């Protein structure tokens, strides 16, 4: 992303942590160092002032040699925290409790980055991005949050998109999991970056299809809808599949019902359905994997181009180039869905009589996507849905079409949430006697004899764990 031509050069006041912080945090060293005293929660911290675009915040972090899951989370928020909370009203955990409110953007730092970089840096920046509305390319301004390792040759990674405001923002962190201490380091006092990470390896991404397959094998419930299961009878057969002969950087599994990104270094990963979509017909799918190291989220589109005509062709990496190459067809896309989408979220897409393309996540009230179909053309078009898994969503599980008329947003769901510790697995295990719920993997780690076996949420002693029925 190119830097702006003109930047403000006056030096801001030294950055420190805000006096408003979680109850489990102790501030020291002139409010530059934040240490989590105990437990797993109550460890949210903010900066004392707003941070400018491109202003790098250097954080020295410490990780404890324990069997905890998860680590430091970094990001930015729009509002002055002291005007929004007191120490008593500040939520215990940031994930969902704050990030679902809007104006709060937070991502976990990659474990490998923390392992190889004792000092990391985080910043946000703005630049032009392209989206397509009514078949015309227009430019929008979105921000991105970047995280990198001080002294590493690998450039900073864009981990999250800010798409609501232009800032400025407050630094927003959660001293979480293995990370029990962070310290803001002044850039002038940084050690020699040529030796700070000498000899430490750089991480590479693992196989997405192996991850998804293992999760399905370990927990068969993952393949079952929870929020949108009322749309189908219990014996409903899965009929929708991805077209195996028309894909780009995609590996298909589970009888072509699951699409997984093959190589994360390639810009686009197209997955076309083999069946057209009709008016008010809902496409139901589920997210099977997310990579939070990527800034964008997901592209969903509709096209009059029959995917069978693209059989075994080399498709361009850029979606705009794809539309230009097949310009005789109509393309309706949302180049980056502006929504919070997480692992195992259930997505329902449909278009209505007015040409609006809608998305409901986990049976919540729908959001309208940027793509718009001319209402006068709807009855004459045959539209095939497709995805470009170029963003955080790196695997999709297809279910069936359903009728939009069956949607009931007041439907009470007993769906299991993501584990609040790892954010990768469904919370399916209960700790006793406190009855707190997390995933089996994290519960098993916490209950190891080598640990104190205390609940990370309320610090009560754990006598046993049991699966939820």
Automatic annotation (TrEMBL):
The keyword Metal-binding applies. InterPro entries: B30.2/SPRY_sf, Neuralized, NHR_dom, Znf_RING, Znf_RING/FYVE/PHD. PANTHER family: NEURALIZED, NEURALIZED-LIKE PROTEIN 2. CDD domains: RING-HC. Residues 14-187, 239-401 form the NHR domain. Keywords: Metal-binding, Zinc, Zinc-finger. Residues 419-459 form the RING-type domain. One of its GO terms (molecular function) is zinc ion binding. It holds the Pfam family Neuralized. It comes from Rotaria magnacalcarata. The keyword Zinc-finger applies. This is RING-type domain-containing protein.
């Amino acid at each position: 992303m190119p830097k702006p031509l003109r930047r403000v050069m006056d030096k801001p006041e030294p950055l420190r942590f805000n006096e408003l912080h979680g109850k489990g945090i102790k501030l020291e060293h002139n409010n530059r160092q934040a240490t989590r005293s105990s437990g797993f929660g109550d460890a949210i911290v903010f900066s004392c002032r707003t941070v400018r675009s491109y202003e790098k915040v250097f954080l020295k972090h410490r990780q404890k040699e324990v069997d905890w899951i998860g680590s430091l989370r970094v990001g930015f928020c729009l509002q002055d925290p002291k005007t929004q909370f007191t120490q008593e009203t500040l939520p215990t955990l940031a994930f969902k409790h704050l990030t679902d409110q809007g104006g709060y953007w937070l991502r976990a730092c990659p474990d490998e980055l923390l392992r190889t970089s004792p000092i990391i840096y985080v910043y946000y920046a703005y630049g032009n991005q392209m989206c397509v509305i009514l078949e015309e390319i227009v430019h929008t301004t979105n921000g991105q949050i970047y995280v990198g390792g001080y002294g590493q040759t690998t450039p900073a990674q864009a981990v999250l998109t800010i798409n609501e405001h232009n800032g400025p923002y407050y630094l927003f962190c959660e001293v979480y999991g293995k990370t029990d201490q962070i310290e803001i380091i002044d850039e002038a006092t940084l050690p020699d970056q040529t030796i700070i990470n000498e000899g430490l390896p750089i991480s590479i991404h693992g196989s997405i299809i192996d991850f998804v397959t293992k999760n399905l094998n370990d927990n068969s419930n993952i393949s079952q809808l929870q929020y949108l299961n009322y749309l189908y009878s219990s014996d409903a057969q899965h009929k929708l599949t991805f077209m195996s002969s028309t894909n780009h950087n995609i590996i298909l599994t589970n009888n072509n019902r699951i699409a997984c990104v093959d190589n994360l270094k390639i810009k686009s990963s197209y997955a076309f359905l083999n069946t057209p979509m009709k008016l008010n017909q809902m496409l139901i799918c589920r997210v099977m994997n997310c990579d939070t190291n990527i800034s964008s989220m997901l592209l969903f589109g509709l096209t009059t181009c029959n995917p069978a005509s693209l059989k075994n062709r080399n498709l361009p990496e850029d979606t705009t180039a794809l539309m230009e190459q097949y310009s005789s067809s109509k393309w309706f896309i949302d180049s980056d869905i502006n929504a919070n989408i997480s692992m195992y979220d259930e997505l329902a897409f449909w278009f209505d009589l007015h040409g609006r393309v809608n998305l409901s996540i986990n049976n919540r009230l729908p959001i309208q996507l940027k793509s718009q179909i001319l209402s006068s053309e709807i009855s004459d078009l045959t539209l095939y849905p497709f995805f470009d898994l170029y963003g955080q969503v790196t695997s999709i599980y297809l279910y069936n079409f359903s009728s939009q008329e069956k949607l009931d947003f007041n439907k009470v769901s007993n769906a299991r949430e993501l584990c609040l510790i790892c954010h990768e697995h469904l919370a399916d295990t209960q700790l006793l006697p406190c009855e707190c719920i997390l995933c089996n993997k994290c519960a098993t780690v916490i209950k190891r004899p080598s640990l104190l076996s205390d609940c990370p949420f309320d610090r009560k002693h754990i006598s046993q764990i049991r699966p939820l029925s």
